[in-house]
Amino acid sequence: MTKSALQIARASYEPKIPEGLRGNVKIEEGASTESVRDQEEIRKLFPNTYGMPIVKFVHAAGKPGVDQPVNVGVILSGGQAPGGHNVIAGIYDGIKRLHADSRLYGFILGPAGLINHEYKELTGDIIDEYRNTGGFDIIGSGRTKLETKEQFDKGLEILKKLNIQALVIIGGDDSNTNACVLAEYYKSIGAGVQVIGCPKTIDGDLKNEQIETSFGFDTACKVYSELIGNIQRDCNSARKYWHFIKVMGRSASHIALECALQTHPNVCIVSEEVEAKNLSLDDVVDYIASVVAKRADEGLNFGTVIIPEGLIEFIPAMKKLIQELNDFLAHNADEFNIIRRSQQREYVIGKLSEANSKIYASLPERVAQQLTLDRDPHGNVQVSMIQTEELLAEMVGKRLKKWAQEGKYNGKFATVHHFFGYEGRCAAPSNYDADYCYSLGYTASLLIVSGKTGYMSSVRNTTASASQWVAGGIPITMMMNMERRHGEMKPVIQKALVDLQGAPFQYIKSVRDKWAIETDYVYPGPIQYFGPSEVCDQPSKTLQLEKQGK
Fold it and tell me: If you ran DSSP here, which 8-state letter would residue 148 be given?
């Protein structure tokens, strides 16, 4: 593999780890736990893995080691996130330190590799090629879901053949939900295979008191913020465009919020606030248009608007429409697909409830079509396919034109559209993510030798120096609740949405009127890997504010 100068320099970087992971360790267990909601239903579905305690690792006397080698399998599941390679490196170093003959196997292209018995052994030479690099290309990733007994049994065949005692699934909330189901099944049949999860998603919606952040969020937000800062500098130089910038985050607005904290845009829409205030699409358009008009009054016909990817689903009326569409298409996809595209709109209008039919009929043709595109693996609309940034820019333009006719607006409005998604998923990890991911992987190896299954690797206190981080594990069932998927109620990890009472949003709320009118842009620049700790090692502003607020 040809390496860039940065990769060559980063190859020698040694991730910082908690003091609690150095030398020999022992495990401390807390009280039994319960799921965040729907306790009785979750307990019945996971009788063998429910109620386990939160654990943490602390120093112990003696030297680290086990009598027998530890063979481990690893899967990268779902979308890419910076730092995944360091999780794998942490697992490898952890099991090798415990026993030199331990072996690590990577399943190719996600869960499908387990089912299809496609794998490769990850040796030291291979691992060293990928330390501190972005991407998931060491073994690839995939979105196949581990959901059926047939899949579980097929996977068990290769796990037994390779004498793998534990499987680490690195993924987001849905992938870790599958890990929890798999752990429960293997425990129920006495398979002798443990399953451990690692919290990955750039969206930042896999977190709680024990999982402070999902890995990749820090790096992706810094990449997007650099791009937004560059746009804002251009915007402030040309002074003639409004830039509508959509960022990833289909189920939560954490990325939009973090990027706003880093760059100070004129407008940042937070989907959770839109839902809480029961705002309509017209309300959102009015708000953006009012900011444009106020800046025009100051002679400022330019600005930036940050929009979360999943905004449409958080507008209450649209959310109800999409839920009905998801359920309808889950049961009528075959019939829908044989209808000519030109007739699909009228077909859908005739099948929906009266209220949702009116809303669907009122949408622009392009948006209506985008709402009926192929669903994602969970049966949900693919919101990244909905060009919300263009829709809002178009609607704001029409609103301003109307206001101009009424004498309420006298400015110029020209727009540029952006969507930042793939640009941040495979970036070289920030120092924070490089350190955090390595510790998550190393912690996973300790959970394995401690005999744990159905746990997610956890590293906390990460706003402190790495030496003070606290490593341990949290039962995945603790994060579960029941939600509707493909028209049925299923156990899934509860997504963490933006807390409107939390410190990050409250800070944005306190300054957004100022940011709207003043050109108070911040230009963060690129991620820094070398230099003072206050420049290179800082976690996200979201995490810093959350910790300050506690």
Answer: S
What is the bridge-based pairing of β-strands 71-76 and 166-171? parallel
**DSSP letters of 224-292?**
HHHHHHHHHHHHHHH---EEEEEES-SS--HHHHHHHHHH--SEE--HHHHHHTT--HHHHHHHHHHHH
Q: Which of 171, 176, 167 is nearest to 194 (CA)?
A: 167
Query: Do the beta carbons of residue 294 and residue 400 sit within 8 Å?
Result: no
Span 490-526, pLDDT tens digits: 999 999 999 999 999 999 999 999 999 999 999 999 9
In contact, 344 and 298? CB cutoff 8 Å:
no
Cα dihedral 215/217/219/221 (nearest 10) = 180
Q: How far apart are CA 94 and CA 70, in angstroms?
A: 10
Residues 291/400, Cβ–Cβ less than 8 Å: no
Q: Using pLDDT thresholds of 50, 70 and 90, give the confidence band for residue 114.
A: very high
Identify whether the C-beta of residue 520 lies closer than 8 Å to the C-beta of residue 264: yes
Identify the CA nearest to 158 among candidates 108, 111, 118. Answer: 118
DSSP string, 177-195: HHHHHHHHHHHHTT---EE
Residue positions annotated with a catalytic role: 203
Query: 404: which 2 tokens?
Result: 């101009």
* Per-residue CA distances from 361 to 315, 347, 348, 358, 398 (Å): 17, 11, 9, 5, 19
Say which DSSP state 199 is in: E
Nearest partner of 439 among 211, 164, 219, judged by Cα: 211
Do residues 207 and 221 touch, judged by C-beta distance below 8 A?
no
Give CA–CA dist 114/154, Å, rounded.
8
Say if residue 381's pLDDT is above 70. Answer: no
* Nearest CA among 497, 423, 464, 462 for reference residue 225: 423
The Cα diameter of the chain in Å comes to 82
Query: What CA–CA distance (Å, rounded) separates 266 from 303?
Result: 6
Q: Cβ distance 271 to 220 under 8 Å?
A: no
Cα separation, 431 vs 105, in Å, equals 26
Element (H, E) at 293: helix 281-297
Minimal CA–CA distance to 185: which of 378, 452, 453?
A: 453
Neighbours of 244 (CB within 10 A): 26
CA distance 491 to 497: 18
Q: Residue 242 forms beta bridges with which residues?
A: 303, 415
Return the higher-pLDDT residue of 35 and 325. Answer: 35
The DSSP H or E segment spanning 57 is: strand 55-59
Mean pLDDT of 108-129: 98
Residue ranges of domains in the chain, CATH in brackets: 26-216+429-480 (3.40.50.450), 217-425 (3.40.50.460)
* pTM for this model (two decimals): 0.93
Q: In whole angstroms, what is the distance from residue 99 CA to residue 101 CA?
A: 5
Give the tens place of pLDDT for each residue, 394-405. Answer: 999 999 999 999
